[in-house]
Amino acid sequence: MKLRLIFIICFELLGISAKAQQNTFIDSLLQQDTLLNQDVLAHPETYKLQIIYTQINRDSLNIPHFKTYNYRNNPKDYFYPASTVKLPAVVLALQKLNRLHKKGVTKNTALSIDSSYVGQENFLVDTTAFNQIPTIAHFIKQILLVSDNEAFNRLFEFIGQKNINKELWRRGLTDVAILRRLSFNYNALANRHTNAFNFYDGNERLMVHQKAEFNKSQFQFKADSIFQGSGYYKDGVLIKQKMDFSHSNYFALSTQHEFLKRLLFPESYPKKQRFDLNQDDYNFIYKYMSMLPRESDIALYKNDTTYFDGYGKFFLFGVNKQHIPKQIRIFNKVGEAYGYLIDNAYIVDFDMNIEFLLSAVIYVNSDQIFNDNAYDYEAIGFPFLAQLGKVFYDFERKRPKKINPNLMRFKFDYNFKK
User: Fold this and answer.
1) What number is the average pLDDT over the span 174-184?
2) Cα-Cα-Cα-Cα dihedral sign, residues 142, 147, 148, 150
3) What's this model's pTM, rounded to 2 decimal places?
4) Residues with Cβ < 8 Å from 213, sequence gap 6 or more?
5) Phi, psi values for residue 3, rounded to 5°
6) CA-CA distance, 257 to 358, in Å (whole number)?
7) 115-138 pLDDT, tens per residue?
8) In order of start, what are the domains of the chain with their CATH numbers?
């Protein structure tokens, strides 16, 4: 009995030691870099800094093996996830379309959206699309290329609040709650109502009508620090009290990191944890995740002064308005709101045989006032995340590998052809 107790204690101590080593690895790596903002490193709790890094090693069959390191990762330490919630919407929209495929509906099927509840609006024409016809495919392109809020709202309405969350939770992704549209000032009740959808064939005949939906359950999430700041502006008036995020979206960094890993490496997971996507779906997502706005078929996005290469690539290039080298591709989703900056990325250098996963969140709101547009993005946030990406890229560049990865599945032709 005593021997068994000693074994258990030793086993637990080994576990604690391994966890401590993982936590100190990133910290030691950061401390070695003199270009990182030293104030952020000295006060990570003030900046709500969290970092997750996954090292990938391939075996002789090119099967990836993962080792993940965490820095101040706490799934219950709330931060506003901003646009990072759009990536699950992309995946779940394509998954839902696969269930409608037997009715002839695809991501390229023309659609219209009805006004089904107070405050909702019809959506009949998409002025950013080449032919002005709304489609799920075009919404996804808008999200992955420039993080369009309205396109996300359309997918939120297509999937429905209840189904978005149920589909994530049943796959074990529990530290997430996607409860509301973005930019629209809808209350909690209005966000539980989602619009009716109509899908049409090439002759404008109705193929499928999806009824308006209402989530009868009032979803909530459990997280710490959901009351934040010292004040916020509402309708131009400063409210001198903490801002309540309890009805906002929630997407823990560890869950974001896990979601991206599962999306990129589905074969590493049991079937019940994967999403119901086919290879065409995966390729469509991968291509537009890594595509630069100037490379797309959307004319509005080809202005690389507004939509420069680093516009949605905070790691490595977030402060650099030059073109990203062709051999580097970043498969990611960023978020930016209320002083929070988040990036959740798989970074690849095809020439150097580099691949790794990196996720981070930083909070840069020194006056602690929300909605005043006085955040420290340019001075602190973007430079920190860009340099953080370089720290891990340089580490990976020097890290010896027994077997170089075959990354052909992530190579795409970005030359748009009509």
Assistant:
1) 95
2) positive
3) 0.93
4) 160, 161, 162, 193, 194
5) -60, -40
6) 8
7) 999 999 899 999 999 899 999 999
8) 33-410 (3.40.710.10)
